[in-house]
Fold this protein.
Amino acid sequence: MNEKTVGMLAKFTGVSVHTIKYYEKIGLLSSARREHSNYRSYDIRACTDIYECMKYKNLGFALKDIRNLIKEADSEAVEDLLKKRLEEIEIALSELQEIKKHVTDYLAETKEIEKKLGNWYIEEMPDFWIRFQTENMEYGKDAQLESDGINFMDYAPESKSVLKISRESLNGIENRFSWGQAVRAEYIEDKVKCGNAWSRQKGYTRIKGGRAFVFYLKITGAYASDGILQKKIREIYREFQQDMDVPGDAYCVRIKITHDEEENDWNYLKIYILLKPES
């Protein structure tokens, strides 16, 4: 038999009826109508076209390029399209490598916080840029995350939720805190390639780092608004400096959130307190 119905062609080539009909609809395949039954029929050329379609599909070519490759392209055009596809793959691999690095770094970060929970250290706090979005539990005015063409969400997971608790709150004078999104200055200034431009960005604050008292904490509930976290920070700091007031604001970087069987969400925080904060 020199011609096959769509069902027979699907079995013969191992390609679904739906795919064959779709390829015909967009002009990659052609068929004839049988005189008496009005069924589509396909000659042996259809098999060649299907094999070529699937070859290029499995190489990741877009349908418009597949049409060009099997219907129009000469030898030079085939070579050009293959080179273009290789360039696309190189870009995709580079992007995947960057994602892999982010996942690897984040996994290491989650492991570190589990290992260090409940302990305190003296470490360097990095400089970072922060966009504050709340005053206590109220949304800030004009505090949308995107401002002047910059959106910290574009930098996730490098951008992190940060809770700033005022020095006065930590020492029991008042309860004042702000949530925001922050990115390490080194990372974002390298991306933007113009660190000085950041000083002109409205709504962004550059926090200068330095030697800091650092500890890791797991906490649940309304810990900021209820003052639970502030009290806990004060207690832990006074293990380090007995009977001393906390010297500066606390920057609480949220590393991850987990959930238990009782539907509590647990926030894992890395907390920095600069030992010599800028006045």
Remarks:
- The radius of gyration is 30 Å.
- Residues 117-274 form a domain with the Multidrug-efflux Transporter 1 Regulator Bmrr; Chain A fold (CATH 3.20.80).
- The chain has a mean pLDDT of 89.
- The chain has three domains: 6-72, 74-105, 117-274.
